[in-house]
Prior knowledge:
single chain, rod-shaped, three-stranded antiparallel beta sheet, 2 domains
Amino acid sequence: MAEIVKNKKSKKPKRKGTFVFLIILLAGIVFFVVKSQFSSSYEWDRWKWGQRPLGMVGVNKSNSVNLCEDMLVENWYSPRRCLVVECTVAAKPENQRKEQLKKFTKKHESQIKDRIRSIISSIEPDEIRDPQLKVFKNRVQQSLRQIDESNPIEKILVPKWNTYKMS
């Protein structure tokens, strides 16, 4: 007599689709949690970009000499975060020595622009946000003194300073 052999079906239901779905869901949750942790840890995200610091209005351009005009400089304050600073820097001469200051800036134009660019790219983000830009102005004045001790600069002026976050 012929015995009928029944195929034994596995008692485990197919769970491959469910397993893949759970892995993708878990990866998505981890990605969004990590991304939100890193983006909110910088207080830069809460600052209004594109605004110039206070105290820049009313710079007397008739008594000043431009050191650089509309310069764009990148500042990488983190491996993945960058600021772009658009600035114009001028200098106020000492006691009616404007002609001497013009000669000085024309003679050392490339050095001056290089120093300003390197100062902006190496400055700390908190110093970029300083409304008075004291650290930046002091560093520019010191570097100009290193170029020529007898330069006739009394004060550094920043008529234009816009900061943009890129990343």
